């Protein structure tokens, strides 16, 4: 019943604002203040690009000896039994699964079925005017605010309205000055500067 109430209330409010429900003519309504917010991008694991420090769960169905957790090393690869080193840096989990299946199909398993999941993301870094700067585990859908909270909060001298985020992806590395509600990704570096007043 609660699910039906909200649309009905919205419909009644819309009719009232348009003057349809008034018997004496249009109703004058004072405009309410409106707050605009930037849309927040949503991170999806299927579009996530792997890099060193990510830990993956690779499942090769029907092959218990190959199903395991693998960490991407500093060279950007994982090392699996039978097929050895497989480049993972810059690939999506689905792309890596396809590469592993192709290598296994080449003389090892007739029709391999492979799935790759992210077991743990690479860490993010937070520096500057926070209580405990350092390296922390990344959690999906993390924002600058939650990163600051994990690092113990702002120091008394912190500039709180904007921070610098360094982000690296397939197109390169960039530094951006962003508000606290901005999403961050694994491997990003958040720098909280000192305010001057």
As laid out across the biggest beta sheet, the strand order is 7-6-10-8-9
Number of helices: 3
Question: Beta fraction of the residues?
Answer: 25-35%
**How would a textbook summarize the main sheet?**
5 strands, mixed
Total strands? 10
CATH architecture of the largest domain: 2-Layer Sandwich
Rounded mean pLDDT is 79
Task: Report the principal-axis shape.
Answer: elongated
Helix fraction bin: 10-25%
Q: What is the CATH C-level name of the largest domain? A: Alpha Beta
CATH topology of the largest domain: wza like fold
Order of helices and strands: HEEEEHEEEHEEE
Q: What is Rg?
A: 25 Å
Number of domains: 2
Distance between the termini: 54 Å
Structural class, from helix and strand content? alpha+beta
User: Can you say what the CATH homologous superfamily of the largest domain is?
Assistant: wza like domain
- Regions with little confidence, pLDDT below 50 for 5+ residues: 1-46
Oligomer: single chain
